[in-house]
Amino acid sequence: MSQDSVITEIDLHGFRLEEAESEVMKFVDRLYYHGETSGRIIHGFGTIAERLPQWLKNYPYVKNFRKAPFNPGVTLVFLEVA
Fold it and tell me: 0.85 cut: is pTM over it?
């Protein structure tokens, strides 16, 4: 993997709620600053999955997000890239 590569997927299993929110924001920031237009957030079905839509809805770079087809434990996030 080159220095210019950015990981476009994050797995939140094992994170506490506060940690997960912080990791999601850092993840979205990295995607945005590397010019990526989308990413995958693996979260499962617990409290993090319930809170994730609120975090993403309030984040400035996020254009849209939705559950992954055939896997509701994953959210696809789409960014506005300048």
Answer: yes
User: DSSP H helical segments within the chain, as ranges?
Assistant: 17-33, 47-57
Instruction: Spell out the domain ranges in the chain.
Output: 9-79
Given a contact cutoff of 8 angstroms between Cβ atoms, the answer to whether 26 and 39 are in contact is no
Order of strands, sheet of 62-68, starting from the edge strand that comes earlier in the sequence = 9-11, 38-42, 71-79, 62-68
Q: What is the pLDDT of residue 2?
A: 41
Tens of pLDDT, residue by residue over 11-45, are: 999 999 999 999 999 999 999 999 999 999 999 99
Neighbours of 78 (CB within 10 A): 17
- CATH level 3 topology of 9-79: Ribosomal Protein S8; Chain: A, domain 1 (3.30.1370)
